[in-house]
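Hello Y.,

Per our agreement to keep a running log of every chain we model this quarter, I'm adding this entry. I've kept the format consistent with earlier entries: sequence first, then predicted structure.
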Amino acid sequence: MARRRKPALGAWLYFSLAFATGGYFTFAAVQGSFGVFRRAEITAESRVLETELSKLNVEVARMENLTLRLSDEYLDLDLLDEQARSVLGLLRSDELVIR
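Predicted structure for the entry above:
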């Protein structure tokens, strides 16, 4: 009768260490600092920041336009009158204020 031989302890240790190392690298590839999930988070965050940047660019363009219209080279009298009324609270003598 043939006797079955148990695998040596070294083989068990080698395969368990190889399995643990493979599991660790798989986990790191999926959920690590540079993993798949982190990449998806960064992509979503970049989309949000790009939309915010486009909104800020529109606001900057608007402010540059208003600044140009109040500069010495190009003075928009209607805008100057509007700003004086809103910021300083100025009125003409022939106007009535209804609150």
